[in-house]
Amino acid sequence: MATIIKHRQIVTDSWQLLKPEAGGSSFSVPPAGDVIVPLAFWLERRDLLLSRAGRLGVWLDSHEEAAAIAGDLDRFALVAVNFPTFGDGRGYSIARLLRERYGYEGELRAIGEVVRDHLFFMAGCGFDAFLLRDDQDPEEALTAFGDFSDAYQTSADRPLPLFRRRFLAAPDGMEWS
Predict the structure, then answer these.
(1) Model confidence pLDDT, tens digit, residues 80-99
(2) How many CB atoms lie within 10 A of CB 3?
(3) What is the rounded distance in angstroms from the CA atom of residue 11 to the CA atom of residue 2?
(4) What is the pLDDT of residues 26-38, one digit of tens each?
(5) Rounded CA gap, 94 and 90, in Å?
(6) First to last CA, the chain
(7) Domain locations along the chain
(8) Alpha-carbon torsion angle 31, 36, 39, 44, nearest 10
(9) How far, in Å, CA of 167 to CA of 8, rounded?
């Protein structure tokens, strides 16, 4: 079984990521077990997927909209967002929309071209699980979460910018210039 980083720990992954079979668009869906299916397959075969044993997850490609699953989020134990290339940042926006606009509280997993250098920023957008690219060392990747002590920007886990957090933490009566 593969390993992933989940909640900043290396764990064994029980999920099977289903992809189209070579040369086609058909899928082989096991009758039981935890599966992650592409959005298009979810939209086509919803009833079949809901009737099988096991937990269900869906994955969105970077060009797909979070709104497409907004009404079904309570059906998914996991939502995966695919990063098809190293420089494609659309998955960050998808994650923030899922967490902040649609209130998704389940596992939010980054898949595809997921590398150590992006983990801190992915976590800030709401990802809590990461399937690293094959050439990435999970032990080394864990250190990414400590690369920065704080961030100026707002994020899914820090809704206030740094200057506001500092102001609120200041003793009463302290003046800021």
Answers:
(1) 999 999 889 999 999 999 99
(2) 12
(3) 9
(4) 678 888 999 999 9
(5) 7
(6) 56
(7) 3-147
(8) 0
(9) 29
Q: Are 112 and 142 in contact (CB under 8 A)?
A: no
Q: What is the CATH number of domain 3-147?
A: 3.40.50
Cβ burial 67-80 (10 Å sphere, 16+ → b, else e): eebeeebebbebbb
Distance CA 17, CA 51 (A): 18
CA distance linking residue 125 with residue 150, whole number of Å: 14
Q: Residues 2-27: what's their mean pLDDT? A: 86
Place of tokens 């509280």: 105
CA-CA distance, 5 to 172, in Å (whole number)? 41
* Cα distances (Å, whole numbers) of residue 177 to 154, 163, 167, 172, 174: 22, 12, 11, 15, 10
